[in-house]
Each structure stands twice: as structure tokens, then as C-alpha cells.
Amino acid sequence: MASHATVEAINGLTVRWAATLPDDGTVLAAAGVWPLLGLLAGGAAGTARQELSDALCIPAEGTASAAHDMLSTLGAVRGLSMALGLWTHRALPIEPSWLNRLPAGVHGQLTGEPKGDQAHLDAWAAKHTDGQIDAMPVTVREETLLMLASSLSLRTDWIRPFTPGGLEAETGPWHGQDLAGLHRSTSLLNRVGVTDTAAGPLTELQVIGTHGIDVHLYLGTPEATASQVLVAAVKSLHNRRAMVRGDRLPYGTPGPGLSVERVPSIDGEPTLHVSTVPFTVQAHHDLLDAPDLFGLRTATDLSQGHFPGISAQPLAIQQAAQAMTATFGPYGFRSAAVTAFSGMAAGIPRHPYRAREVSVSFDRPFGFLALHRTSRLVLNAGWVTAPETFEESTWDL
């Protein structure tokens, strides 16, 4: 398992990256970028090596080992598929000491024919993401000598599925839209909570998945931006004591999207009612738009080489990008089509008890994190602005 320091370093990159995001729908995976930066840092020298080390928040001499440890960790997580690929031009000599530290079978050749090489690399991307990403986020050019890539595919099924239906937003930018909704109820009030953050109160809902991978949804105040919510969300993962859980929330509206009441009950059991929306978010990130964030400022300087530990031939970074897609559905963090029936008990029962009832609704733009439950490593972070619409014709009743 990767060290606690490495997990904090990757989550720290997620925080810094999230802080640069606009309020558009997007998704990112620092866990897919960080190991590649570590491998590059292990073969870099001079200022480029130091900048990469600073971006990784790991001492320069430990970047390669930390990158290899993280690749091994990601590859061992159930529900997570991790692949690494390296392709080099036949004319580029590669240092054996750097190459031998990579996993077996990841090294291929570039033929120097861009169209054919691009097709081969695009096929690799599609194969290792089950077709979710059908092309590499960078382009093979005639002058390309080296390509280093990673794929990170995540799939988790909900322990307790949602019931599809409609959702009506009472206020906000989604008001008046026919929204597709996901609903469920549970007696586990601790799945929801509120944290006070620098961006104001933040409501968190934990959606528990299989293989130890969960997705957390985050709703801030109407004024909070995407970057503010996501930064606060990642930071809250390491300060769980500040979270006030559903069983201790005061009555009324103690957090964004929340209401807590005392209602008549048949059995006195508390209830948490959840309403949210299914979504698919896609994004393409050019990492060179923020070279300092990723430690790539000097590494892109074409006037000299920066990676003598990788090749005796001078090398500089030509392109760096990430393509991502994420889908949240009724059965899990994946694409799904579902037909459902809803029902209620017949008759008019007596209500001899009163019980706590917590309701939470994500009916305006919100953030999400997909994370490894035990290590708290953030695998995906994203912001939802365009929920799916409710179409009556899709229901087979």
C-alpha cells in the first residue's frame, strides 16, 4: 500500500488542481497524473527535476520510488483497473536503469508514421478503459520520440441502489427543468453530514460502493463556486472530526440541501431520504495550460534536454493532457439504463412513535469525489452542472 505521505501528496495535487477549475461541469483524476510525473522526475535533472519534485510534494530522490509504489497500489485495488504504457521511437536510446524499473510488458515502439502510431495508441486507450475513452488525449506527431501514458478505470456498484424517478428543483439554475432523479431511503443517518469550511457550510453524502470504493456528493451554499466546494471537500477528508453527522444535526435546515424534522413513525426508526440526479461528466485537460501546477514549466523548454536519466538524447515535454468521463447511475458509478416501479403500503397505519427524519436533495450544481475508502485517496473529483432530463418515454411500465 502507498504511504500516507503519498496519498496526502496526490490529494494535495487534487486540491491545487481543483482550485483552478471554472464552474463548468468537469472531472479530473490527479491519481492518473501523479505517477507519470513521478516517473518523469525520476529521470529528470536540474531545474526540471526540482520543479517536478515540488509539484509532487515528494523529495526529488524519492519521486521514482513513490511513483512505482503508487502504480502498484492502484493496480491492486479491486474495482480499479490501472495500466501504464511507454512507446519510444526506435532512434531514441533509453537508459536501461530507468526502463528496468517499469512494469514488464509496457514498452512498445513508435514507427515514426504518425497516423499508424496514433491509431495504435488510440486503440490502447480504448482497450484499457473499456471504450469509455476512445482516443489518446495527445496527438502523435512526426517529431514525437516518446509517449508515456496511464489509464485509470473505476467501477463500483452501490451497496444500496437508488430508485429512478423524476426530480423537481424548487430554486436555483435547475428550477423548471424536467430532471431525472435518483431516490432512496435508509435508517443510516451517518451517511450524511455537515462541515463548516472556509467556503461556508458543506453538506456531504456518502454513497457506499463495492470493493472499498465510495462516491461522496458535496453541496455548498448557492454562492460557493466549483473550486471552493471541491477544495473544501478534499480537505474535509482529513478532518473527519469536524463533520456533524445526521444523527446529531439540529432540527431545521442545518446545511445546504438539508432538512431535519421530527415526524410521526410506525416503528420509531430514524430515516434519511436522499434525492439526487444521475449524471455523466466529460472533460479534456491540457496540463500545459497550468505548467507550474504540474511542475512542467522548465520541462517544456525545447532549448535543452531535461531527462538524462531517461535517454542520453536530449528530451523535453511536447504535450501533456488528460481526457476523462464519469457516470453516476442508479446502480453504481457507471453507465446504466434502469426500469423501476415505486410503491407504498396500503391502508392508513397508526403512528404511535415519533422519529428523526433527515432529507437531503442535490437539486443544483454540486461536487463529487470518488475515493478509496481505507486510504482516503481521491481517485476522481468533479463538478455537476448538466443533469440528465426526465423522459417519460424511457419508462417501461
Describe this structure in words.
This protein has 7 helices and 17 strands. It is α+β, with helices and mostly antiparallel strands and 397 residues long. The chain has 2 domains: 4-76 and 80-154 and 279-328, 2-Layer Sandwich (Antithrombin, Chain I, domain 2); 163-278 and 329-335 and 353-390, Alpha-1-antitrypsin, domain 1 (Roll), CATH 2.30.39.10. The strands form 4 sheets. A 7-stranded antiparallel beta sheet has the order 1-17-16-9-8-7-10. It is elongated and about 75 Å long. The model is unreliable at 334-350 and 392-397 (pLDDT under 50).
Give the amount of beta strand, in percent.
Answer: 25-35%
CATH class of the largest domain: Alpha Beta
Query: Biggest β-sheet, characterized?
Result: 7 strands, antiparallel
Structural class computed from helices and strand pairing: alpha+beta
Radius of gyration: 23 Å
User: Quick one: overall form?
Assistant: elongated
Strand order of the largest sheet: 1-17-16-9-8-7-10
Assembly state of the chains shown: single chain
Helical stretch tally: 7
The fourth-level CATH homologous superfamily of the largest domain is Antithrombin, subunit I, domain 2
Number of domains: 2
Question: What's the architecture of the largest domain, going by CATH?
Answer: 2-Layer Sandwich
Q: Kindly identify the CATH topology of the largest domain.
A: Antithrombin, Chain I, domain 2
Order of helices and strands: HEHHHEHEHEEEEEEHEEEEEEEE
Outline the low-pLDDT stretches. 334-350, 392-397
Count the beta strands. 17
